[in-house]
Amino acid sequence: HFTKAAPGQAAALGKALMVPDPKSPMPDHFVVLRHQEGDDWDYAVIQHLGPKVTIDAAATPPNPGRDLRAWHDDTFATGPSWAEVSKLLAGGGGSTGPVFSVGVHRTVPGHRDQLQKALSQAGAASTSKVQPATVLLQHVEGGDWTFLAITRYNSWQDLAADRAAAASDGAGWNDIRQHASFHRDTIADRVFPK
């Protein structure tokens, strides 16, 4: 989910989001990313719920972050195994830690397969020597996007080198724009796990 803190509550919300939910089927299977530049959210939380989820329609008790948020946007998505996701999102980092590009994309009608292929291959044709790790999640129910692409760079320097190479050679840019009717990109850092 993406969430925006109420005014003055960003630090407190961040702390609340880093506390595992003991009622979750896999309470320690989550990553919290913090906005640096881009879209209007403060945190993105990727929570692994397993292969099947049941939602209880009964009223849920208040959670510690409820009064700290201005809004949140939840989406159920599918993707690679948790072992692969956690390896890709938790690895890397220089002295400042890894940096992430978080992109949501909506397809042009009839272009879902093409956009998925373009996002999966993004960066493959780049002249950059940087080899970022990417996790691609597919919307099941919730937000107004089709794909969520999370790319991990080992450092700000790697992000800059990759973006400079992409700007000069257009690697994948035209292909993605041909099949995406909408996208938002955000630069983020990881606050959990450290």
Quick overview of this protein structure:
This protein has five helices and nine strands, in the order E-H-E-E-E-E-H-E-H-E-E-H-H-E. By secondary structure, it is α+β, with helices and mostly antiparallel strands.
Subunit arrangement of the protein? single chain
Major β-sheet strand ordering: 4-1-3-2-9-6-8-7-5
| Helix coverage percent | 10-25%
> Which word captures the global form?
globular
Mean pLDDT over the residues:
87
The ordered H/E elements are: EHEEEEHEHEEHHE
Largest pleated sheet = 9 strands, antiparallel
Which structural category do the helix and sheet elements fall into?
A: alpha+beta
User: Unreliable segments (pLDDT under 50, ≥5 consecutive)?
Assistant: none
Gap between N and C termini: 19 Å
Please give a structural write-up.
Helix content is 25%, strand content 32%. The protein has five helices and nine strands, in the order βαββββαβαββααβ. The longest helix is centred in the last third of the chain and has 14 residues, at 156-169.
Which descriptors would you attach to this protein?
single chain, 194 residues, alpha+beta, nine-stranded antiparallel beta sheet, 5 helices, 32% strand, globular
Produce the secondary structure layout.
Layout: E1 2-5, H1 10-17, E2 30-37, E3 43-47, E4 69-73, E5 76-78, H2 82-90, E6 99-107, H3 112-121, E7 133-141, E8 147-153, H4 156-169, H5 173-179, E9 180-192
Antiparallel strand pairs: 1-3, 1-4, 2-3, 2-9, 5-7, 6-8, 6-9, 7-8
Helix pairs in contact: 3-5
